[in-house]
Amino acid sequence: MNDRSSTPEKNGHHVEHMAGAEHAHFDPSKSIEGHHHLTRNIDEGFDPLVLKRIIRKVDLRLIPILSAMYCISLIDRTNLSLARAANNKAMDTRLQLSIGDRYTMATVMFFPPYILLEMPSQIGLRKFGARWWLGTSVILWGIVMIGMGFVTTWNQLTAVRAILGVFEATLFPGAAYLIACWYPRKEMAVRNVAFYVISIVVSGLSATLAYGLSTLHLRNGLEGWQWIFVIEGIITVGIGLLGYLLITDFPDKAKFLTDDERDIIQLRIERDRGDAVADTLNWKKFTKYICEPRLWIYGYMFGSSTVGSYSLAYFLPQILATMGFTNVQAQLLVAPPYVWAAIPALSSAFLADNVRNCRSVAVAFNATCVIVGTAMYSQLPLSQKAARYAGVFIALGGCNSNVPLILSWAQTSIRSQSKRGFTSALIVAWGGIGGIIASVAFIQKEAKDGYPTGVFLTIGMNAAVVACAVGLNLFYNWQNKRAARGEVILEGEPEFRYQG
Fold this sequence. Notes:
With 500 residues, the chain is mainly α.
């Protein structure tokens, strides 16, 4: 590969032989604005066995710790509904959350700082490195969660929720950006979905965990809802400390890889899209990116999907109660739909990465599932309890499949690391907007009627997602044909093509 000596790899291969006649050494002196040889066969000349081992090495180092961090993030931001339902709503009695819109206020206040700090968080990620930036953030919001167990008024709860949003703002866009910097486009959907779906499945078991913790009610003077916040906060701090040990930074700084292995990772990225080298986000680029309609369309689709996921995360116990399930049954029946979500999510990701022009089809299909499932669990007669519960499976599977899929689709349609960071922050900020919409549209006084405002808004927004996905696919096909005729250059690179 270069003049450095290499040690023998497994199966008797040398990394220096992986590129065959073509030298694989990655030259970081080339900027993303320079000329690149993009090619569909990004693995040409590499030994398949050794390449597979390197990719697996990256997968095992990157995905599990990010999944653990996002899992506890989901648990911490959505456990409010579970804590509220515990021990015959002891939390409601203590904090008087049922008066007016107090519960809605406590739910919503997480999102304004979460949205506003998405973009600054990306700057900090590059400046301080993923290990210290993300690990510290997790520890800090874990401390906030512990403090939430000791609030005495609904005002304090609302304020602490806002502080939680400050620290959680770093993780999801940071993780999505980090994954995009490590993998070529053909591998992004599966990795994004794997990272997200592992988190979703495990966080779905949080209802069972919350029920178990609620049995500590009045132990050592703390009520069940307090134990839920305190114990889950301690778990969060522990995961943050693990982050210091396990999170890896960007490919050019990855110490768990050899020099040759880092070259291979970066060369694949360069062959795929020509942006392995980081570029700085300045005001000129920021202005250019923010005026690009495509990115806002992705943001809208992402936000519409999170309306479905947040509404079920915050209100599923109450929705199940309207179906006739008892309080304990409702808490225990939350988990199965989240486990099921792994199947449609991973299937969508596999198709998106391996079937040409299938990303838009997968997004449109999942949005349709949200529409159908939401209509089933909200509109079918109360006597059809099993069918209504099946609708929860379909709706939750659809929205939680689309959340990572839309994010990865956006990342495959752009070039340059500065644009990746901007896009991740913008899209995830729309996720926060979706959380606000879900919190205020599912109106407390409509709970007995099945939350009609929230339900029909969710259906309408996801119908628009179907139209957006189809529209983007048609636009990308048109632009790719123009680029093939030399009429336009996409993303500043003559060989670059959109993936619909």
